[in-house]
């Protein structure tokens, strides 16, 4: 490169920095000691990250009498040690979180999830050993209103959902006021059929 090249004008060099004077080490914080404090010692509980600075002799002396749990009872110490295993964070038994399990949202999600699961052999179990959301629920004893609703529609108690819906359409068409010229008896029968169907529908029969 020539000395009169234009690129020489673009070259910049850093000025050599003068060496900075090294900071003098702090003095030992032990009362009456003038030596250098080159060794750190923890301040204590509730002061994590803070340290005293001592010389070598005094840091040994300080560590001999240092007790992190000073002022705590045996029960408090045992509790602290137990919580320290998990980093002082709350924990639950595996698969159990009572606060979330008892929430309405948990119940809603749980019931919605199990309603889409086909589990004819009952592999999905709750903690009590019962199947969660069984596909084929066990028969239960009918309540008096449910029995009356089946009688009103002229159906057996073990009628299936399609049978109930089909029977409902048939009876509504038969007893509708427009089909019976305003007959009062037919109108009452019409209302009774509607009420019976609504009750069975609300109770999960159809």
Can you walk me through this structure?
This protein is mainly alpha-helical and 206 residues long. Among the domains are: 25-96, no CATH class; 144-202, DnaJ domain (Helix Hairpins). The protein contains seven helices and two strands, in the order ββααααααα. It has a two-stranded antiparallel sheet with strand order 1-2. Helix 6 packs antiparallel against helix 7 (184-202).
Topology:
Layout lengths: L38 E4 L8 E4 L1 H10 L8 H11 L13 H4 L2 H12 L28 H9 L8 H15 L8 H19 L4
Antiparallel strand pairs: 1-2
Key features of this structure:
two-stranded antiparallel ribbon; about 5% strand; Helix Hairpins; about 210 residues; mainly alpha; 7 helices; 2 strands
Helix content: 25-40%
Largest sheet: 2 strands, antiparallel
- Uncertain residue ranges: 126-138
- Put simply, the count of helices is 7
Round the mean pLDDT to the nearest integer and report it: 75
Structural class: mainly alpha
Shape summary: elongated
Percentage beta strand: under 5%
SSE ordering:
EEHHHHHHH
Q: Give me the count of strands.
A: 2
Rg, nearest Å: 42 Å
Strand order of the largest sheet: 1-2
Distance between the termini: 95 Å
């Amino acid at each position: 490169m020539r000395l009169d090249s234009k690129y020489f004008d673009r070259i910049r060099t850093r000025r050599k920095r003068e060496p900075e004077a090294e900071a003098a080490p702090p003095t030992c914080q032990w009362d009456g000691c003038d030596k250098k404090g080159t060794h750190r010692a923890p301040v204590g509980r509730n002061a994590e990250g803070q340290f005293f600075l001592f010389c070598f002799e005094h840091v040994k002396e300080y560590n001999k009498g240092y007790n992190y749990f000073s002022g705590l009872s045996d029960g408090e110490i045992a509790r602290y040690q137990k919580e320290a295993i998990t980093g002082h964070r709350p924990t639950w038994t595996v698969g159990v979180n009572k606060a979330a399990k008892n929430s309405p949202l948990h119940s809603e999600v749980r019931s919605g999830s199990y309603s889409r699961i086909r589990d004819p052999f009952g592999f999905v179990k709750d903690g009590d050993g019962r199947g969660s959301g069984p596909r084929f629920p066990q028969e239960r004893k009918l309540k008096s209103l449910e029995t009356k609703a089946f009688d009103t529609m002229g159906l057996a108690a073990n009628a299936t959902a399609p049978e109930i819906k089909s029977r409902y359409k048939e009876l509504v068409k038969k007893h509708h006021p427009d089909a019976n010229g305003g007959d009062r008896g037919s109108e009452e029968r019409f209302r009774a059929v509607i009420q019976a169907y609504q009750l069975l529908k609300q109770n999960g029969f159809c």
